[in-house]
Design a protein that fits this description.
The chain has 248 residues and is α/β, with parallel strands linked by helices. The chain contains 9 helices and 7 strands, in the order βαααββαβαβαββααα. The strands form 2 sheets. Strands 1-2-7-6 form a 4-stranded mixed beta sheet. It has a 3-stranded parallel beta sheet with strand order 4-3-5. The longest helix is centred in the last third of the chain and has 16 residues.
């Protein structure tokens, strides 16, 4: 007897710029809503979103408007952790102090410490020496973009904003931002958003489905079915279709 099919409620929020192009929905969220109401989100959005299992987010932000990015958190469990900090900013020492307290609980994990400016050099020169980097939102927001570029394109990276208590839905998004310079050109790389969807499924316990999506992404990349930022010739829709072909 096969297991019953589970269904989930997913809040798809495309936001601004290429977020609308990589997330197939268009609720009233983002700069367009801000211009009308003075708010990026409705006042009751926490209550509204609490009824969902997860959030698939595109991007928000536009020139001349206040912006903010959520903290990005890794979703893997590798054997080496690096912490980044600026030596002249005392508040960052609290993160290192916390890691010192909990490191005894993970004897198989190697810990290291790196100045954030030196970290940029290490990432470029010795990327294979790094598994996971832990730091404050400001540092990791910058370093994660560098990591995505080193991997091939900022358009392929996903991020997760997790609520470990699961009291509220966790949010998954590509890291590329709204990218208004390429909006409506049809050239945005959809992989970051699709990868975010795979991460979302893994978080919801649908590991097999998540793996299938990742395999489809890999297949499309192996076939060079890519957008221009990765040396290909496909537009956003065509690249998405190639991943779907590999999936189905």
């Amino acid at each position: 007897m096969s297991a019953p099919i589970r269904t989930y409620r997913i809040a798809a929020i495309p936001g601004d710029g290429i977020g609308i192009e990589v997330v197939a929905a268009a609720p009233e969220v983002g700069t367009a809503y801000f211009k009308e109401s003075g708010l990026y989100l409705p006042k009751d959005f926490p209550k509204t979103l609490k009824g969902y299992d997860a959030i698939l987010f595109g991007a928000v932000g536009a020139a001349g408007k206040p912006t903010g990015k959520p903290t990005k958190a890794p979703s893997c469990d590798p054997p080496t952790f690096l912490t980044t900090f600026l030596s002249d900013v005392p508040d960052h020492e609290s993160l290192w102090g916390l890691l010192l307290k909990i490191r005894a609980e993970f004897p198989g994990v190697t810990w290291d410490r790196e100045l954030v400016d030196a970290m940029t050099i290490r990432m470029v020169q010795k990327p294979a020496s790094i598994d996971t980097v832990v730091g404050t939102n400001l540092h990791i927001d910058i370093l994660s973009d560098l990591a995505a570029a080193l991997a091939g394109s900022i358009g392929i990276a996903s991020s997760a904003n997790l609520d470990p208590t699961r009291a509220y839905p966790s949010m998954f998004e590509p890291v590329h931002g709204s990218a208004f310079d390429i909006t409506r050109k049809g050239i945005a790389n959809p992989i970051g958003a699709i990868w975010a969807a795979a991460d979302m499924l893994a978080w919801l316990g649908e590991g097999e489905s998540a793996n299938s999506i990742m395999e489809a992404i890999s297949t499309a990349c192996d076939r060079k079915m890519l957008t221009a930022d990765m040396g290909g010739t496909l537009n956003t829709v065509q690249a998405t279709e190639e991943i779907c072909k590999a999936l189905f």
